[in-house]
Amino acid sequence: MHPATYSGGFFGLIILILDLIAIFEVLNSNRNVTSKLLWSLLIFLFPILGLILYFLFAGREEHNSGYESIA
What we know:
Blueprint: H1 7-27, H2 33-45, H3 47-57, H4 60-63
Helix pairs in contact: 1-2, 1-3, 2-3
């Protein structure tokens, strides 16, 4: 078999991991519940387009509260 026939699974896995990171970031942000739900649904229903739109237009810097250190 040609090696390119298996590339879809690899790229699908990369998209899945990036989508999960983006959804985790949305849920941990300081947005209101409606905004969190809409961004999460957009990323979930349209994985590639939603991910691109999220990284371009979500205003991630202003909505991230930052991570607090446990220690």
